[in-house]
Amino acid sequence: MAPTVARSTIDITPLRQANLPIIFILGGPGSGKGTQCAKIVEKYGYTHLSSGDLLRDEVASGSERGKQLTDIMQRGELVPLDVVLDLLKEAMLSKLTSSKGFLIDGYPREVAQGIQFETEINPCALVIYFQVSDDVMTARLMNRGLTSGRVDDNEETIRKRLDTFHKHSLPVVEHYGTKCRTISAEAHPDEVFQKVSEALETLS
Ligand code: AP5
Hints:
alpha/beta; 5-stranded parallel sheet; 5 strands; binds BIS(adenosine)-5'-pentaphosphate; Adenylat_kinase_CS; nucleotide-binding; kinase
């Protein structure tokens, strides 16, 4: 049975009314989501929210909700969808007045997350999916693991994260159909960003 994690009550009326563009950033572990989001922020000024970073911040805060998340993330599994959505809502509301739009990195991780987000907040404008082979993603994460200090950057958890990605997250790409741009992301980050920029230009 899925673990139960505490929820909060959040009024998202201002978020819905602002109707800012929302871009979902998808890709397997180590596909370069964070790397490309940093470049998008620099060029386009969107607000970057990483579901993984929000979860790690929650763990680091020592809150009751955070304590319940550590084991799930260490196992490379998905955190319950309500928890991630609550964290995203809180973060989006806190940035609302200064934001031109939101890059939601690492979300949705499963089709149900996307449906819940779009029902409770607003539909996304675009989905970008970074396609990278498992071997390349593993090599990048093993390399990053030498210095990242992340509890999930080890061989066993990387394997589980990849399994979770194939099982739950790949169907999201299919779910969004033509709204989703698939970008091959094994080249140099600058080359990948060229293609990302082309996809984003279609929004304006
Ligand atoms: P999360 O933090 O989202 O981790 P992830 O998806 O596994 O992705 P990473 O952050 O590890 O990699 P990335 O794609 O951002 O790549 P990066 O740019 O860093 O999630 C962690 C956990 O939280 C999940 O396992 C789950 O438990 C939970 N979680 C998160 N979101 C959730 C959700 N929505 N629902 C439920 N649970 C959720 O790059 C990686 C490395 O590669 C870096 O060293 C970088 O320098 C290098 N690199 C990047 N691009 C290139 C390139 N083009 N060429 C060469 N090297 C490159």
